[in-house]
Amino acid sequence: MLRGVTIRRWLAFIALVALAGGVVGCGNTRDTNVILATTTSTFDTGLLDVLIPEFEKESGYNVKPIAVGTGKALAMGERGEADVLLVHAPAAEAELLASGAALDRKPVMHNFFVLVGPQADPARVMATSSVGNAMASIERAGSDFMSRGDDSGTHKMEMSLWDLAGVAPGGHWYQETGQGMGATLQIASQKSAYTLSDRATYIALSNVLDLGIVSGSDGDLLNTYSVLQLNGDRFSGLNVDGGRAFAEFLLSMETQATIRDFGIDSYGEPLFIPGPASGPGEPAS
Amino acid sequence: MELIWDGIVEAVRLIFGGDKEVAEIVFLTLRVSGAATVLATLIGVPIGAALGVWQFRGRGVLISIVNTGMGAPPVVVGLVVMIMLWRTGILGGLNILYTPWAMVFAQALIALPIVIGFSMAAIAGIDPAFRQQMLALGASRSQALYLMVLEARLAILAAVMAGFGAVISEVGAVMMVGGNIKGETRVLTTATVLESNRGEFGTAIALGAILLTLAFLVIATLTILQQRARIR
Amino acid sequence: MTESHAIELIDVRVWKNRRLILDVPSLKLPTHETFSVIGPNGAGKTTLLRIISLLDRPGEGQVLHAGQRISSGRETLRRRRRLAMVMQQPALRNSSVWENVLTGHRFRHTPKDIASRKVGEWLERLGISHLSDRNARRLSGGEAQRVNMARGLVLEPDLLLLDEPFNGLDQPTRLALMDDLWRILQEIRTSTVLVTHDRGEAQALSSSVAVMLDGKVEQIGDPDQVFTAPRTEEIASFVGVENVLAAKVIESNNGLTTASVGEGLVSLAGEYPTGEDLVLGISPEAVVIEDPSDLGATTSVRNRIPGSVSRLFEMGAQARVVVECGFPLVSLVPGSSVVDLRLSPGAQVVASFKASAVHVIRSGR
């Protein structure tokens, strides 16, 4: 009983426990792990829950989706902390390409952002003809607006829309949640506020929301999701092959078909449209 | 109200319907928090005991660090661990970010000061004459310490439970270092946040109820142990 | 290896908060005997015991165990495991009596069969075999103290250190345990140091005794000598020689001296120069109270001084009587005497004591 209690033996014991744990923990080696940094919208809608198991089954890779919002996902890409990115902020994506951190960018799917708000529409947004005017009318009416405020793709889009409207948002009516899309929509619903959402997340949550689409069919609201592969020469330890395999998987015919059909069962309409938009607003790639 | 009722119905269905995903999450939660607690106990109890009994240079500083650590926000611990475990971080070579081991690491760090602090108090609560008598009977310093830990076993167990209770209900750190990956690093707290963000309130409430039950069991055990320790 | 002394202290000093609490220039404890250290609370007895037990290091000086210096930590532990110290508070583990008594052997990694045999044997010798499976925290004071003692004795040490082992026990329990301990110490003949503040315990159990006062060893000797012939007034008052009297020699011849004390006269053995100042000590037990009518009876008792009872305290089987006979004299008499002699304050009595019972604590000056 009192035999094994010297400090040295104790330390050795702890080291052994930690080592044993380490061996178990490192069961899946680095090459099979693919870290996917992505936006919350692909995650909160459940799309990735469908796509990833398919990819894992067919490729043998093990995908770790980290849903952090586009801003942070891009930051992770910039540091080489992820192997592949699935994001939706074309301008920021272009910067990452230009910096050399990312090598390749391919649009995977798109949909539209929607401006949603309370059914009563206190700012009379529905009467406006363009999204720019819609944003301006919210500011004029001083109606509550919930911003993501987290540098995500949606937030970046929201900021560009305020630019378009010629409005510098601020004041008591303008509030930042700092949270993901799902949480922000729910807050907006509870507070009877307007907010900008990607269409997919809004539809996925619409049954628990007391919000309607007040502006949604505008080329300026185009939301394109792209997959970015990172530069293996720049970062050591990057799983380049795994990242490429996932990017190719997303662009394959079968996956594109899965994306096309995703959500029809649950919501009666698709959440994403596969491939790039052919209409206006799509930046040249 | 209807929503909460629906949620409770869903909760009961998930818990008693043997939902595989929920079972997996519960199992992982217990495994991660359990491993973290074991690790924190193996390291923390001897340190706490030593701090409670031995006089040495730097003891005061260490106690201050432990006390600060007991109140440290878990998200800060999570942030620090995440930065350390980044590929570019000092522990990046371990390659354990976004695995359960990263969560064990972070949770062990969160539990460690709690275990140390509580053990320290438990050991300091023993009559100093006890240690003197053990030494007088020929104990080495570490043997005397070991017997004091045995003597304070109920209070030490309470320390361990407190550590477990703190980490099992923690969300920020595991979200950051685990990434809330389905089937891999999704635990009760992060799953609850996710399901609530997704508007899946039924699942969220179910997961919350399970977490609440686990936390209740922990606290109840803790209370009973402490009462017994006091009676003794 | 010569083992003339179990323990030898050389120039040992201990300070606590800059105060010198132990100052022992030289102390040698005999082997195979029981040595008592007696003194009031705070005299430094326990400090001395902790130094001897190697639990504490002296601020200055050396402690030799069986003639050897102990320098390294490893040596200290090895030596500590050759001795056993039984402390004042039992501080038993929250487990069975058996497990408690086994503890010291666990520390020493004694082979299991040997350890078990010894534990069984010592539980038996201390008469607590029947408590073996009981939780040690649920014992009476006497039982706990027996377990405490068994825990030390079971180690069969070279040196046994006992710190106030009978403290806090009621009288019958204390006497029974004292009796058993005496018997055991006779049997095992282990070098033993007994720290106590009780003169009776020291007298009953030890072959020599040291009186400690204020961190210093004031007197060492066999118990009878120390308790009847204390070297100073301070020792006298501590060991219970309550009658400490200032006297002046009036005449001295044929080995007998007469000295004046207050307004009375006292005869004592020995010769001293006329006019010399003396300090006399008389144990209360040595003073007998007699009825005044017995004054005419012939007896060898030199001092028979008439006086009156000034105060009277009855303490169970004994009574303490203060007689005013030209000076106050304390006497310890059997309780029955109070009734037989109809003692009460103001009663006329004769206080008598032998010349040989008068001890000269100090002479000269």
Number of helices of chain C: 10
> For this structure, what is the CATH homologous superfamily of the largest domain in chain C?
P-loop containing nucleotide triphosphate hydrolases
Mean pLDDT of chain B: 88
Number of domains of chain C: 2
> Number of DSSP helices of chain B?
11
Overall strand count of chain B: 0
Radius of gyration of chain C: 24 Å
Structural class of chain C: alpha+beta
Order of helical and strand elements of chain C: EEEHEEHEHHHEHEHEEHHEEEEEEEEHEE
Give the CATH topology of chain B.
MetI-like fold
How would you portray this structure in words?
The complex is a heterotrimer of chains A (285), B (232) and C (365). Chain A is of the alpha/beta class. In chain A, strand 5, helix 7 and strand 6 form a beta-alpha-beta unit. The longest helix of chain A is centred in the N-terminal third of the chain and has 19 residues. Chain B is mostly helical and 232 residues long. Chain B has one domain: MetI-like (MetI-like fold). In chain B, helix 1 crosses helix 11 and helix 5 packs antiparallel against helix 9. Chain B is globular. The relative contact order of chain B is 0.17. Chain C is of the alpha+beta class and 365 residues long. Chain C folds into 2 domains: 234 residues, Rossmann fold, CATH 3.40.50.300; 123 residues, OB fold (Dihydrolipoamide Acetyltransferase, E2P) (Beta Barrel), CATH 2.40.50.100. Helix content of chain C is 27%, strand content 37%. In chain C, strand 17 and strand 18 form a beta hairpin. The longest helix of chain C has 18 residues. Chain C is globular and about 75 Å long. The model of chain C has no long low-confidence stretch (mean pLDDT 90). The chains are: A alpha/beta (285), B mainly alpha (232), C alpha+beta (365). Chains in contact: A-B, A-C, B-C. At the A-B interface, helix 1, helix 2, strand 2 and helix 8 of A face helix 2, helix 5, helix 7 and helix 10 of B.
